[in-house]
Design brief:
Elements lengths: L1 H10 L30 H10 L12 E2 H7 L3 H13 L3 E5 L7 E5 H16 L4 H15 L6 E3 H5 L7 E3 L6 H19 L5 E3 H5 L10 H10 L3 E6 L2 E6 L3
Antiparallel strand pairs: 1-3, 2-3, 4-5, 6-8, 7-8
Length: 245
Amino acid sequence: MAGNISESLKGKKRARESDAEPETADIDHILSLEENLTFSDTLVALRIMREQFPQIDKPIQPFILRSQLYSSVEDRTQVDRDLETLRREKVLRIFKLNSGQDDHAIMFLDDYLCQVDRVVKRLEGEKGSDVLEVFNWFRSHVIDFKLEPSIEHQELTRQLIDPNIYWFAIPNIGSVLKGLSQGRKEVLSLLNRRRYKEMMLAPLEKKRLRFSSLDMRFHLRDLIGSGHLKTVQIPTGIVVRVSKD
């Protein structure tokens, strides 16, 4: 599969569901989630989900949750292998999110460097040259050589006196993480209020969330991959159902 990745890099009716909740008005310009819920290739899934990242009013580059990949590619072991290969090839970086759960975000390296550059430009008029030198040093000597999600204290400072570990972070992601948590709760609450705790995927995908800037598509992939929701194929389409405890 690693070889395939390298090649890719180069070339590559239920009346109870008719609630009066608000819906997104314009999602016809992209494929519906029902039409591209699963993929056979990890890199293809990453690229498509990157393109489908919600348009939000936050200065954040697109990222994909590992749980979203798990909902989109059937073989989770293969997903982990592919991510490791892509990480070593410096195609992407993986970040542990401070969300209170075991969440990991995946960001293409070019997007991450762009995110860092945004912060540097913002700080140019606010901070002294010492701060900018730190960012330049970080980009030149850390990002390119430390590919794991974390770095030990002695690796960062070149001293062997403190075993503390530091996690790499995505700049400006804090406000988005709040929406991630609130959106998860909102989607689960919406489905739990239904008599059968389920809904057809097509109308569910069009619902507009009140407490998250991330869209329904983003949250559904996440919740399906994390096991909170499950999908069932029926003759009329795909049903999304709350998983039993």
